[in-house]
Amino acid sequence: MTDICSLSLTAVANALQKKEISALETTQACLNRIEATEPKIAAMLLVNNENALQRARSLDAAGPDPALPLWGVPVTVKDALSTKGIVTTAASRILEGYTPFFDAFAVEKLHKAGAVLLGKTNLDEFAMGSTTENSAYQTTRNPRDTTKTPGGSSGGSAASVTAGQCFASLGSDTGGSIRQPAALCGCVGIKPTYGRVSRYGLIAYGSSLDQIGPLARTVEDCACVLRVIAGHDPRDATSALLSVEDYAAGLDKNALKGVRLGMPKEFFNNEGLSAEVRLACEDALKTARNLGVELVEVRLPHTEAAIATYYIIAMAEASSNLARFDGIRYGKRANSTKDLAELYECSRSEGFGQEVKRRIMLGTYVLSAGYYDAYYRKAAQVRRLLRDEYLTALAACDALCAPVSPITAWQLGSHTTDPLRMYLMDAFTLSLNLAGLPGLSLPVGLGKESNMPVGMQLIGNAFDEARLIALAHALEQNLPDVGRPAL
Ligand code: GLN
């Protein structure tokens, strides 16, 4: 019998609908895979064995339903998304044992589409980081080389998808946290347009930047999940009032003919870009050209300012969002404190990790009366410039392409002592969040030196996810497969 876990989501969903396999046997196969691989990769913060099996049994009892695109499909969800009755920690001590009484909108949508939730994936605490090493609980490892990082902050989701523990996972992306781990692990990830997926129930990091999106092993699989979770939700005031397209319909391997793809000079001429990532992207673009793509150079002149701009805005918003975790309204309360001030102080000191504290302090600083104009206001102005530059570049072509991470997955522990060096790793992803635009990360090959996956982004106009998916799918059909990890 074929290994169920090696199938694509699309294939498994089909087989389930046709009753070739049952929801129970599919769920059990994933749980077995989790059991076999978790000791090596530590992608999951919580595995929901009993609930998942129970859910699968009741789905089987009711029988397949063609109206439910994820009927019986096992998925995992980043632990920054609230799950009703299931502990949700955002990988922080301060939320240890916290059990939400509601589902995030995107999680609710997965349930309604028939999915089976296997459990919650690891992340950097409150999604702050690029390696999943900032989790208060465990460090996730890259399934393709367990001495290396899976990326972050949705590293648990990327690792769980890549290791075949599930068919898709939900992540969140504030400055690259879906696209970068997808690139470093070698799976597909989509950061939708800001407003495309409701943030209701997502534990906030930077609210004007955060977006929930899918990670899966193929573009078509991601498209299928995106269609399920996208759409308007009155409980998120920034949720777009737009109808949702069937992103997986009509995918065609010839979709690249006559497409104009912009290459931002500032990304490809960036001195931080490693030779092997550049080469893998260039090879993919050569393939694209052979398939009828016209490559044009575009400019994004303020790219250099994006990292500083992002970190000012993200930290400012984080400091404000995290104020609610005070041991009273939210979060674990410190014991035996003598007064209210000490209660706040101890609860927050004990509950938050080092990186989160650093960001709260920097965020509070840039918002303080004396510095607001110099930092926050200036960052907001540059943000606008960056967005305008993207829109100008996109007016001249159908989509843009860019590397995702300047280097392939690096050794665990190698960047942790230098936060600034870590922030530089986000150079190619975070300006997209500042602009609110959609981005898709596609594995385009293995690095010549490291033999680890390289991801390339396709970037589009607001709400143009369908086009990005169509282009990425066509490219994917013509690129070498990055293969499966031998775990
Ligand atoms: N690495 C970036 C940060 O630390 C992005 C994280 C994210 O997208 N959640 O802020």
From TrEMBL:
InterPro entries: Amidase, Amidase_dom, AS_sf, GatA. GO terms for biological process: translation. GO terms for molecular function: ATP binding; glutaminyl-tRNA synthase (glutamine-hydrolyzing) activity; transferase activity. Pfam families: Amidase. The active site is at K78, S153, S177. It catalyses: L-glutamyl-tRNA(Gln) + L-glutamine + ATP + H2O = L-glutaminyl-tRNA(Gln) + L-glutamate + ADP + phosphate + H(+). Coiled coil: none annotated. It comes from the Bacteria. Allows the formation of correctly charged Gln-tRNA(Gln) through the transamidation of misacylated Glu-tRNA(Gln) in organisms which lack glutaminyl-tRNA synthetase. The reaction takes place in the presence of glutamine and ATP through an activated gamma-phospho-Glu-tRNA(Gln). Belongs to the amidase family. GatA subfamily. This is Glutamyl-tRNA(Gln) amidotransferase subunit A. The lineage of its organism: Bacteria, Pseudomonadati, Thermodesulfobacteriota, Desulfovibrionia, Desulfovibrionales.
